[in-house]
Input
Amino acid sequence: MALDPAIKEGAPVGYDDRPIHSEPGSLPPQVQAPLAPFRGRHPDAPEWFLDAIAQEPERTFVTSLGTQIEALSWGELGKPGLLLVHGNSAHADWWSFIAPFLAQDYRVTSMSLAGMGASDWRESYAFQDFAEDAEAVARATGLYDGGALPIYIGHSFGGSQVFFAAAAHPERMRAAVLVDTGFGGPPPNSPEAKRMMEQQVRNIPTGDRAARVYPTEEAALARFRFMPPQVAGNLFIADFIARRSLKRAPLPDGGGEGWTWRFDPAMWNKLDRTVMMGMTAEGPPKVTVPLVHIYGDRSVVKSRISDDRPSPLPRDMLEIAIPDSAHHIMVDQPLALIAALRGLLARWPG
Output
């Protein structure tokens, strides 16, 4: 059975966390459309979350390689720097309820990768370009001003960019934290596994299959879900993320504006992996900066690594498991992730 054209031949498969739509009935309702029951209303949220998102960041844009990159910053200039990087087809606000808890002791910046969030789209994307963007954002937002190199923290696809930057440019960071990060793996072998993979990705927009434009925000929110598919651990967080994943767009029939997702629908096909694949051709690259992996104990991404599928991540790196969490740890267990990061950074890397 042929793989969906959304996946390039030879590209990693089974690793994608973009918020996308798929056909009704393909997944359980709580996975397929977690926000649909609210009909556009905000789910109830606890005080800690409301207080966190009320701490509005400095919202700026940094020019890198001719592209405007969205950057959100919290905390005082001169404090040690933390750079936060989100997952694939996500955006900087995935960290907006985490960063304020780190900003008590750090200057913190969350960036939207090129082609995602409010950052500009590109004709092509590459690991080395994401690394240049990360350094440009870190310098422009003052993460180096405290006299020490910043620490990079990346979730999922963002963690793979952090890992690449750590391997290629160790002089730019003091340490790196990967949050539930994997690098896909070979195509599934069994027909059933292939069928499940195709079901997951068959509605991902591509260059020849544009993203849908929904007539109302409510309609768009009802189509939001996570990739890899999972139940949303906290619906108030899913709602916050989903709303900030949307932008206005012309309706296809020309009858006004609707809502669509804020990512380049062709990004996955436009991603050049040549340098990254060359770096890992002889096995895991040597990473000289201190490296930690925080993962969800129910994560399918972590299970791929445990199943001994090919991965460039070092097998002997320090790992921290977050209990009762799937891949999207900041959605499932945000306070546990905050505690893990604060506890880790208090003593590490020394």
